[in-house]
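DM from R.C. (forwarded with permission)

"hey, sorry to bug you on a friday — could you get me a structure for this? deadline for the figure draft is monday and I only need the backbone to look sensible"
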Amino acid sequence: MFYVDLPVLIQYNLNSPFSFYAGLQPSLLLDAKRKFKSPNLSDTQKATDEFKKFDLAAAAGVGYQINNAIGLKLLYHHGLTNIHGTSSYGGPGSYRVSTGNSSISMTVVVDVTGKYYQYDRQGNRLPTKGGTGGVLK
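My reply, with the result:
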């Protein structure tokens, strides 16, 4: 399944290189395929109609600023909606289907603007000229 995700996160910066993130992530389904494989047959079928087009997930995570220009962000996304288009099947041996979407992502953040924040040895962010960060040298 291929979703386009738009995370809307609130970032809380501690007076250290650590920060925390929390928020919601709406997603839109672009494509879904079902693959079959057997010794005699291999087939791929479009399955987009079997799943809901919209998904909503809660997201939370932590970030760590390694140095003045590079940081890491680790996020966990937990689906809040049932993404399976049909929630039950009738007939003999009927059952209910509930499928949520969950993921873990790691992001490397690289400052390419030439601006960064400096920290002292205790992890406190140092004041910078104009409040926008210093110039990377």
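R.C.: lifesaver. The first strand starts at residue 2 and ends at 5.
me: no worries. The mean pLDDT is 78.
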